[in-house]
What does this fold into?
Amino acid sequence: MNKKGIIIIVVLILVLCGAFGTRMFLAYKALKLKEKGPDEWYSTTRDIYYKAFSEKWSGSGYDIDPIDDYKDNSKKFGYYLVDLNDDGSMEFLVGFDDGSKPTKFTDVYVWHSDFGATRIMYGGTDIYYYLCSDKCLREDMEWGKNSTTRYLKYNQKENSFTILENGGDPQKVELTYFTTE
It folds into this structure.
């Protein structure tokens, strides 16, 4: 075989491998994007909150940066599980009842396809989230005399929230409380 024939064969092999490699990568990426979180992926995070609230956030090693609201005894904190985007994986929302309607949430955890359980949003004091009737979240932010409201829809494929022009009505939901007090 001459030099030109070998070059043609090598180029063909590279082209075929490149095309096959690209297809394999795209197939892998498509599977990964459709991957839902394992059942009860949130259990470790939930257990940390149970421990921290039972200790009134006086211990250490919680792996969660506490917000001032956690230490306010007038707020009864708990969690709520909801599939925000109908992908079969539950999202973990931490919030409280303070007698107001709807339920206020301070933390939103999702199953991130690359990082696992992820606290993707958190607020408190001046930022609260509300679960709306259409499974989007309403984010209310206040600073001084200014305030902003945004509606957010979870996009698991992008591991982020998309900002919507509007959303459903904020809901009051039944929390599973971290303490029995």
